[in-house]
Design goal:
The chain has helices spanning about 1-10, 20-30, 30-40, 75-85, 90-105, 125-135; strands at about 45-50, 55-60, 65-70, 75, 110-115, 120-125. By secondary structure, it is α+β, with helices and mostly antiparallel strands.
């Protein structure tokens, strides 16, 4: 079943233990993440590390958007790229680096959780979060 789940995108993840540290941290992220879960119908995957949180929207690693929490607010990668005046080439390079990072961590344990009456995937990974942070911080404009 694992192969077919991956092929058709219906992979099931174990339920996140509500008493776990990860569940408590997810709850502490508060309104920005809950609003996103309420407003978007696309699949959401929340990557949580020690120092930050990234949200993949859509179907990574092929078609996706990325947002992250900064000072309690969600930052949209597309708006971030426009603000930093990234060229198409720079933007594509960053996207490819994000795809590669996602692929490197694809076999790590993920969990299912409910936010605003919808299921989201929670991916607790300090290493993945740090890698995403490095990619975003590599923008030097």
């Amino acid at each position: 079943m694992g192969f077919l789940d991956r092929l058709f995108g219906t992979q099931q993840h174990p339920e996140l233990d509500p008493s776990s540290e990860t569940a408590q941290r997810l709850d502490e992220l508060g309104e920005p993440l809950k609003n996103l879960a309420h407003d978007l119908r696309d699949k959401l995957e929340v990557v949580m590390g020690e120092s930050g949180t990234f949200v993949f929207v859509g179907k990574p690693p092929k078609q996706f958007g990325v947002m992250w929490l900064e000072d309690g607010k969600l930052v949209n990668f597309k708006e971030y790229a426009e603000k930093n005046k990234l060229s198409s080439k720079e933007l594509n390079q960053l996207i490819e680096r994000m795809k590669s990072a996602y692929t490197r961590h694809i076999d790590e344990e993920r969990f299912s959780a409910t936010l605003e009456d919808r299921e989201v995937v929670v991916h607790p990974s300090n290493q993945f979060e740090h890698e995403m942070e490095k990619i975003i911080n590599s923008v030097s404009h």
